[in-house]
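Lab manual, section 2.4: Encoding a predicted structure.

Procedure: take the sequence of the chain (196 residues), apply the prediction step described in section 2.3, and record the output as structure tokens. A sample record is shown.
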Amino acid sequence: MLQITKKPIGMGKERMCFVHPEDPRLAIKIAREEVSQQSQREIKFYRKLEKRGGVHDRHIPGFHGLCETNRGVGIVVDLIRNYDGEIARPLNWYLAQGYPIEEFEPSLEELKQSFLQNLIIFNHDMTIGNLLVQKLSATKVRIVAIDGLGDVVAIDWLDNFSFLVRRKIERRWQRFMERLYLSREVRQQREAAEQE
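Recorded output:
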């Protein structure tokens, strides 16, 4: 059993995320309560990907199975780090620091194309806090979706048809982008620009 003794590096409504105590290249997601729908959905999502032969795309973390910890069962995934070894920060952090959303539009489009190409369904509650900006070099970034993956529908047999999956991804992406441009961080940027 792995002993988690350090503070979490991230915390959501349902889960906490820790650096793996034995491998700094990995992260462990652990439910805050006994049962986490988010964790169950994510495990189902990764199992589906495994059946399809996995996804070899760096826009989502690699999945390394489950582990027992002193805090409960954890999901082991790649820990997204920048080229300098620092843990990547979420998109909303950069927007709150004043980085204009337009800087990230090409990377967001690249993420969308990855989802479409690999038939990666994300759920309705994916937020900008679920997207990490990974610095690949001093000038190049990639956006990695670390949460909000998988579908929330009870009947998912329609997901066996790739053209229907792509239509679903397109619809959800459009709604996600609308929420992004209405987010507090982007609104504050626009208001500050108007006052200059």
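Check your result against the sample. The longest helix spans residues 162-181.
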